[in-house]
Write the structure tokens for this entry.
Amino acid sequence: MLFSHQLTHVVKGERTTLTETPITLPTDIQLPGLHHIGLVVRDCDAATSYYKAFLGIKSFFTYNVPPMPSSLVYGKPTPFELRVGYATLGNMLFELLQPLDRVSPQSHFLEERGEGIHHLGFLVPSVDDYLAKIEGKGLHILAETGVPSMNVKTVYLGGDSLGGTVLELMQDGPGLQDFFQQVYQAIGHEPLQ
């Protein structure tokens, strides 16, 4: 269970006990290993400089994602733009996402919560198979994007059972593998297993 404990909070001498509601996570989704952690930032270039110094990251690969006409945000056609930075951090990728518009899910996150961890990213064999598994489990699609000609599809999932974190499912395949190969080459790192 997630969030199944009591907290005692003291403010100005008054004690308040907060009981967090237990939430049962769906157990039959069986996600593969974590591929990356995505952080939303106001300025990707400033954030890369900060994380290089703070975490000792040697190199980032940054690029602008052009608007993709097939993007859906909250079920409505909404092309959006991002500036993205990738680096390796331990045995996974570290992704920085700067919204370049006011319509992306990352922009909404930034407006509502500020900078911080936005999502956990997973490469899956079939996004559609995973969407079928989560149906009726309290998760919903925040955004969907991709490049159909390359068989690349990505969805962002949200829901109360995730405790405010978003899941990103990216359909693994040759197009995506080629892209990440370019990322690893640009940052001077061997592909992660």
Q: What stands out?
A: Helices lie at 44-55, 105-113, 127-134, 174-186.
